[in-house]
Structures are given as C-alpha cells and as structure tokens.
Specification:
The protein is α+β, with helices and mostly antiparallel strands. The protein has 7 helices and 8 strands.
C-alpha cells in the first residue's frame, strides 16, 4: 500500500463519506450591538406611532390640511428663483437661501463661488431673477449652475433696504419646501414696483398677500365679536389674533382706526395716504403677532435711516 493517509484513520475522512463541516465559532457580542438593535426597534416604534397619530388626526379633524411640501428630486434644472440671503461656508463656498417657484424656500450649498475665477460669483446676488440648478435634496442640495432669467430692473439705492425687508419677511415666515406660486409672483411684482415708485404701497400689498397665502388673512370687513359689517363712519381697534372691535367711547383715541380706511385696506385700495397709514398700523401688528414679537433687522435699519434723514 502506498504511503499516505489511511482511509478511515483519524487524519482523514473515510472513503465515500464527505468531510464534516467545521463548526463556526460564535461571534463575541459587541458593545454597539445592543444600541443598534434598540435604535432599530425605536425607529419601528416611532414610525408606527407617527402613522397611527396621523390617521387619528385625520379622523378627528374630518379633513387633512393639504400638504404643500414638494418631493425632493435628486436633480433640478433651471428652476426660477430669487436669492434671499447668503453667507460664507467652507473655504470659498456659500450657503444660499432661495425662494423658488416649484420648490418654495430652499437652502443650497455652493462650492468655490467666492473664488475670483468663479463664473457664478457675480450672479448670486439678491434682486436678480435667476434660473438655478442643483443636485441632491431640495433643501440642503448642492448648487450646480445658475444663470440670469431674462431682464431685470436695478433697485435704486434708497429702496434697497425695502427689498431686504421683503427678503427677511420670506426668510422668517415662509415655510421650507412649500410651494407658493402667488408669493413667488407677488415678490417679483413688489420688486418691479419698488424700482418704479415709492416703497410704501408695494410693501403693504406684499404683506397682505403673504399673510393671506400663509393662512393669516385679515378680516377687515366685519367686527370680530358680533360679525357686524364695518361702518365707514365709525372707529375700530385692531387686536392681533382677534380682529376688529368697535370703539364704544365718544372720543375714539389715537389708536383707533376709521372704518372707511379699514375697508379700503380690505379691498387693496391703497392709493391715498390715510389708507396706507391704516394698512401700515394693522399689518405691523399682525406681522408682529406672527413673528411672536421678534423684530426684523431690516425694519430697524430703515427706521434708523428715517430718523437720521429727519435730523439732518
């Protein structure tokens, strides 16, 4: 017999029998396993609880509020947009806040646009109509291109702060990733009006539009407590979150507003100074209520400039 491993010996398998599989050693538990399992279980519980809560809210309310949020495509090309704000990011990049027609307010990251050789450096400015492209999520994606969309009118220097005021309103009040076509078109119309005339009327019209589109429309045609139509010859107090209350005293006081002016504001007839003054007081109170009392930096700057002009 040839020298080697004898069949059936302890050094090899017997003829005609398969070699037995080696038993795999059990992996020692890792200290992160429990955490991963807990997170998976927790995610499942949160998902299930959230779905159940959504169903219950829909049943209890009878109707679910229409969700204006848009889906997040992986790539968007030539989306109409206006730049609201930008700030430095990384070595030569910027974080950009846009209001877009199809995707609402979005934040995009732009790499290298602060470099002198960047072709986008001069384009990414406020008050320019743009067509922007990005990849990734609708909010937090990466800017891949931008170009001017048609013609535009430059704002005069004394109305730039009014434009920044509009931008700050959108940054503070417009929800992310909610499409609002009327707000987008109204913003463009407000900039065009600012370029041609004094800012007061354009600002008040846009404020009214923004509040209405966001669900905070003002009821300026009826009394809040009784529902009685406004009397043009009476005076009223405006209470944010409540509405108009008729003045019962014989002397209306400095804070009371004439019904005639309030009705003009309700119809958008802001062609005279009295209606504009009433609109300014009502809208300032309403916007302050929506902002939870937080001031607007651009408004403070405009007031400071106005005081400076009056003192010189």
């Amino acid at each position: 017999m040839a020298r080697g491993i004898a069949p059936g010996s302890r050094h090899g398998p017997a003829a005609g029998h398969p070699r037995p599989r080696r038993r795999r050693r059990a992996r020692k538990p890792h200290r992160g396993d429990a955490g991963r399992a807990d997170r998976r279980d927790g995610a499942d519980r949160v998902t299930a609880a959230g779905a159940a809560a959504s169903v219950q809210r829909g049943i209890a309310g009878g109707a679910v509020r229409r969700d204006r949020r848009v889906s997040a495509p992986r790539r968007v090309l030539h989306e109409p947009a206006w730049l609201l704000h930008h700030r430095p990011w990384s070595d030569a990049g910027r974080i950009l806040e846009f209001v877009t027609r199809g995707h609402g307010r979005v934040t995009l990251f732009a790499r290298g646009v602060r470099r002198p050789e960047s072709r986008l450096r001069g384009l990414l400015q406020p008050f320019l109509p743009l067509l922007v492209s990005w990849s990734g999520r609708a909010d937090g994606g990466t800017l891949t291109g931008a170009e001017i969309a048609g013609t535009w009118t430059t704002l005069p220097s004394d109305r730039l702060m009014s434009g920044f005021y509009l931008n700050e309103l959108l940054l503070r009040l417009l929800p992310r990733e909610e499409r609002h076509d009327r707000v987008f078109d109204g913003y463009a119309a407000a900039l065009a009006t600012l370029a041609a005339e004094a800012p007061a009327r354009a600002l008040r019209i846009f404020e009214l539009l923004l509040l209405e589109e966001l669900g905070y429309g003002l009821a300026l045609t009826h009394e809040a407590d009784s529902g009685t139509p406004l009397d043009p010859d009476r005076y009223y107090h405006f209470r944010p979150g409540q509405g108009l209350l008729a003045v019962r005293d014989e002397v209306p006081g400095a804070t009371a507003l004439p019904g005639r002016d309030l009705l003009a504001v309700a119809t958008g007839a802001l062609d005279d100074e009295r209606a504009l003054a009433a609109a300014r007081r009502v809208l300032r109170a309403a916007l302050g209520h929506c902002l939870d009392g937080r001031g607007l930096h651009s408004r403070e700057v405009m007031l400071a400039l106005s005081r400076l002009e009056r003192s010189t």
